[in-house]
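Dig into this one:

. . .
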Amino acid sequence: MRSSSTSCTLLNKHFTRNYFENYINGEKGNLSLKAFLATEQFFPGIGNGVLQDILFDAGLHPKQKLNNLADIQKEFLYNSIVKVLSDMLAKGGRDTDTDLFGNKGGYKTILSRNTYKQPCPKCSGEIKKKNYMGGSVYYCPTY
């Protein structure tokens, strides 16, 4: 099993939609989604690599600001956090990571170094890579 203890914390009974809404509404609105979710570590367990798939699943861009999120986008974001982390945990981690024995995880990343320049699974456009806030972000320009 990979380092899933922090992910488990996010997925426990206390990480409710109401908790998430209260937390996101209490933070500085000028933060980008990447800064809020991964860089500032407001939610331990979500790093730059996990962030990519969460935002893609939610249909959000890493540079989008918190204060520009509509209520429905907040709902999509919360649901995506729970969905992606649950899936990664169930499958023993991401395919870009290995455990102590050198085994890769079973979760197939959507946006990562493994999928860079490949067709987007939603629109078939090319997945792009940019440096942003001290790390790379992979994204689909359409989604």
Q: What stands out?
A: Residues 5-139 form a domain with the Helicase, Ruva Protein; domain 3 fold (CATH 1.10.8.50). Helices lie at 5-10, 17-26, 33-39, 48-58, 71-90.
